[in-house]
Amino acid sequence: MALISPSRRLRRTPFSDGVEAAGVKGYTVYNHMLLPTVFHSVEEDYRHLKEAVQVWDVACERQVELRGPDAARLMQMLTPRDLRGMLPGQCFYVPIVDETGGMLNDPVAVKLAEDRWWISIADSDLLLWVKGIAYGYRLDVLIDEPDVSPLAVQGPKSDDLMARVFGDAVRDIRFFRFGWFEFQGRSHVVARSGYSKQGGFEIYVDGTDAGMPLWNALMEAGRDLDVRAGCPNLIERIEGGLLSYGNDMDRTNTPHECGLGRFCNTATAIGCVGRDALLRVATDGPVRQIRAIEIEGPVPGCDRFWPLMDGDKRVGRVTSAANSPDFGTGVAIGMVRMTHWDAGTELRVDTPDGPRAARVREAFWI
Amino acid sequence: MALISPSRRLRRTPFSDGVEAAGVKGYTVYNHMLLPTVFHSVEEDYRHLKEAVQVWDVACERQVELRGPDAARLMQMLTPRDLRGMLPGQCFYVPIVDETGGMLNDPVAVKLAEDRWWISIADSDLLLWVKGIAYGYRLDVLIDEPDVSPLAVQGPKSDDLMARVFGDAVRDIRFFRFGWFEFQGRSHVVARSGYSKQGGFEIYVDGTDAGMPLWNALMEAGRDLDVRAGCPNLIERIEGGLLSYGNDMDRTNTPHECGLGRFCNTATAIGCVGRDALLRVATDGPVRQIRAIEIEGPVPGCDRFWPLMDGDKRVGRVTSAANSPDFGTGVAIGMVRMTHWDAGTELRVDTPDGPRAARVREAFWI
Q1: How far B74 CA sits from the closest chain A CA (Å)?
Q2: Where is the Aminomethyltransferase C-terminal domain (chains A, B) (predicted)?
Q3: Which helix (H) or strand (E) holds B5?
Q4: Helix (H, G, I), strand (E, B), or coil: what is residue B126?
Q5: What's the mean per-residue pLDDT of chain A?
Q6: Model pLDDT for residues B22-38, shown as the tens digit of each residue
Q7: How many CA atoms lie less than 13 Å away from A86 in the CB half-sphere?
Q8: Does A14 sit behind a cis peptide bond, omega within 30 degrees of 0 on the bond before it?
């Protein structure tokens, strides 16, 4: 692996000082911002995440804020998920599609009020798409990236840690709901959500200057809980089937190919830009779809498509892979053609280190 | 510095195998793609760039292709530069602005034909803005990212190296013009352009599979010219005043603030989305502008805004900085308020390593 060269373009976050002090060893870049990838080792971070509690700098989940009389209309234009029943205080995972039904992002929409939304984005400049659509349709809406930076608290001891800093009321936040909670006189959105299957919260930290005081308070309050700086963990997220935009899907994929059909209500999502393009695939289903793939390990790091083969025939590709300590196998996410996507189908995956036996699974590991 | 974690999301390029074989030591991420930053050392790469010839993997300069009857209309909507006089075969540096006149990108537009353009982009997902505008205005135009990856040949011996591979006709290409040149039976756009002041070309390599054969041919043909793998060089580009989108400017800046007023014809750029917003600043001028800043060295790496101070008063900020061997000083790019932007103004810059004396220059170093 090579080093990452610092520059202003790879934006630091309100928590970067804390991340560095905790001895971050690796980064990726996400929304033009630094995202830590490893502190001790990916395996050690994984073990700790499953047993204790971690604080994650996920400021790179930037917000696209929609504000104004046309905010709700615009939000529905962006996604085939029917948002009519969504209430302020709720978070919805929303596939965002272009006019062809291709995925532009897979963010979490946060409904702050009828006329105010945050879109907590994955790795693409969704702001540009949203601004372009709003301008083209002359909508009455303000669109901007506010100074709001998510900090995640993840792991089985998350509730205990959060209660110490924000009070016991945080325990009552239901999954994908949020409330406003005070810290040092400022109010922050706190949601029960996060990019792991170990439970936890995301604090939408309001204001760069509030970042390090909160980081430090969480570290201090959780000392006896063995709190550590952490980050989204490659192994755990694959085991849990958490997709990564840009890795597991991109603009060439429909939500249905990504297994996100349950988040689409294409028939009733009136106004959605990609609605017409998606109606047929919403009814008939896709011809390829994301699957959990078990691979005979050990597998190398996956930094490119690995072809999934049935003999000489290419039937799909692996896009994320890791070696799972808990399941004692290579765990992977791949896109597989309909002809070969049934659970139990035996395939071969061609990795840069050579071919490996692979098997399509019924479900992810958790 | 920390390591960069590989993943499919940080896309490899058609030339990555060559880059790795040449011993790349550092990367940045640009348009979700790996961009090498250093091979030997930034200083050694700099010296070699100025004396010999380098081959650069700049595949991360992705193309946004516009094709169809409304392509030219759409292209003019994107920029305040008047494109009416532009001919096929020309390249134009075009500030791209949003409806407020804020910079979204500073690409090179390549006019392939009246109804076919490439926009060779800096680091933002401009495709999403262009698609959004085209959809909102119901334009008859296809917009996509083709499988075209620029490979730059830069340095004083560029003409000699290119002539050996593409024939002597490449010597006749004028600055910011291009022609079609064959390599192994396939035709590629070759332009006299590039992100250095040392002269050279950019080959818009058509097709991933054509990448490594061309890379290898250039390396082979240039052996006695001391050809090496290289990359945009931080020191050289600051000396030459080559701006970097995301470092030196972003969506909060107008082209005029970036000193790009000479590329704007706001009055006659009919149809440009940001025209109304820019008319006044185009006439009156901006209240802050990019300047070359000389800093008493040595300076640390610049990965955040460095405040430019006049006593207690903040009058600007530095966004890129390096230590120049040739000029024996810290060289920097900064944005300075009108009250303090005159050449010779003495300022202080607050770096993370402490304050440094700084001086506004009349022009960049080259």
Answers
A1: 12
A2: 288-361
A3: none
A4: helix
A5: 98
A6: 999 999 999 999 999 99
A7: 30
A8: no
Paired with A63 in beta bridges are: A120
CATH class of A16-61+147-238: alpha beta
Measured CA distances, A333 to A123, A316, B127 (Å): 18, 11, 27
Chain A residue with Cα closest to B244? A9
Q: For residue B109, give the 3-state DSSP assignment.
A: strand
**A360 with A342: CB under 8 angstroms?**
yes
- List every span in chain B annotated with CATH 3.30.1360.120: 16-61+147-238
Cβ neighbours around A285 below 10 Å, total: 12
- Can you read off the two tokens belonging to residue A89? 């205080």
Which regions of chain A carry the CATH code 3.30.70.1400? 63-144
Interface contact A128-B133, CB threshold 8 A: no
Residue A189 to residue A180: CA distance in whole angstroms: 5
pLDDT band at residue B217, thresholds of 50, 70 and 90? very high
Q: Where are the alpha helices (DSSP H) in chain B?
A: 16-21, 42-51, 71-78, 126-136, 158-166, 211-221, 234-239, 275-284
What share of chain A has pLDDT > 90, as a percent?
99
pLDDT value, residue A215: 98
Q: How confident is the model over A276-289, as a mean pLDDT?
A: 96
**Contact present, B233 and B45 (Cβ < 8 Å):** yes
Q: Do A98 and B130 touch (CB under 8 A)?
A: no
Q: Are A135 and B137 in contact (CB under 8 A)?
A: no
Classify domain B63-144 at the CATH superfamily level: Aminomethyltransferase beta-barrel domains (3.30.70.1400)
Rg (Cα) of chain A, in Å, rounded? 21
3-state secondary structure of A90: strand
Cis peptide before B298, with omega less than 30 degrees from 0?
yes
Most B CBs within 10 A among A7, A25, A99, A234, hence the mutation to make, goes to: A7
Give A133's contacts in chain B (Cβ within 8 Å).
Answer: 132, 135-136
Instruction: List where CATH 2.40.30.110 sits in chain A.
Output: 287-366
Report the topology of domain B287-366.
Elongation Factor Tu (Ef-tu); domain 3 (2.40.30)
CB nearest A135 (choices: B99, B125, B247):
B99
In this structure, what DSSP letter does residue A125 have? -
Tell me the per-residue pLDDT of A189-239, one tens digit each, with 9 for 90 and over: 999 999 999 999 999 999 999 999 999 999 999 999 999 999 999 999 999
> Rounded distance, CA A81 to CA A122, Å?
17
Rounded distance between C-alpha atoms, residue B175 and residue B259, angstroms:
21
- What DSSP assignment string belongs to B138-151? T-S-EEE--SEEEE
pTM higher than 0.95, yes or no?
A: yes
Asked if ipTM goes beyond 0.95, one says yes
Q: How many angstroms separate the CA atoms of B268 and A49, rounded?
A: 59
In DSSP terms, B360 is beta-bridged to B293
Query: What is the maximum span of chain A, computed from C-alpha positions, in angstroms?
Result: 64
Which residue, B178, B64, B177, is CA-closest to B117? B64
